[in-house]
């Protein structure tokens, strides 16, 4: 029986991909209860061979490997969700790393209609030199309480689909919006937020290490007019969801989601 499906979208997998798979392979949680689903997307088919070699080196690790010509993490994650067998879903980016007890600690805390969130550290080249990720501040503030039912207080955790364990029943038929290349994580988390009653804080040893890369998609420079258009369309998508489920959404959380794309726009523009 598969308990956890680890979903990893990958564009041009490189040595970073090997580090990511290694961190999954060395988990303390039983390998027979984990499946890894990798979707290589938007690049030459030859990259499949590289990904397959890395996965085959992880002896005993159950995996599925897919290829899609269509680029984008949203499409890749949607493909993986369609084939996932796990009771719980864990999203990991292909250049990131998770701590050795990451899955075991989080699944031990999971409850019905809840998600478990981990600590997050950012690094450039070496794990020995990490720094606080923007989500880490929320984690540090709330870890002494163990959980929160107020989505506004834990809103930063809803900006990413990574660094958490999500019950498959919470996701259901919900999927990522492929129209967006930025902000798609936050939109997806807002989409499923009405099925989440509690956010549980994992212990400090459950760490998601986010690799900081200058060439990442979210850091690519765009002109200001393009940024305005993207922010407007994303905000409109949040607003549409907010209106449709107004009666069961934390008002402050909903307003924050609608306005967040503009806040992010000016932070990127003027930082």
From TrEMBL:
CDD domains: Glyco_tranf_GTA_type (cd00761). GO terms for molecular function: hexosyltransferase activity. It comes from the Bacteria. Residues 5-168 form the Glycosyltransferase 2-like domain. Gene3D superfamilies: Spore Coat Polysaccharide Biosynthesis Protein SpsA, Chain A. InterPro entries: Glyco_trans_2-like, Nucleotide-diphossugar_trans. This is Glycosyltransferase family 2 protein. It comes from Jilunia laotingensis.
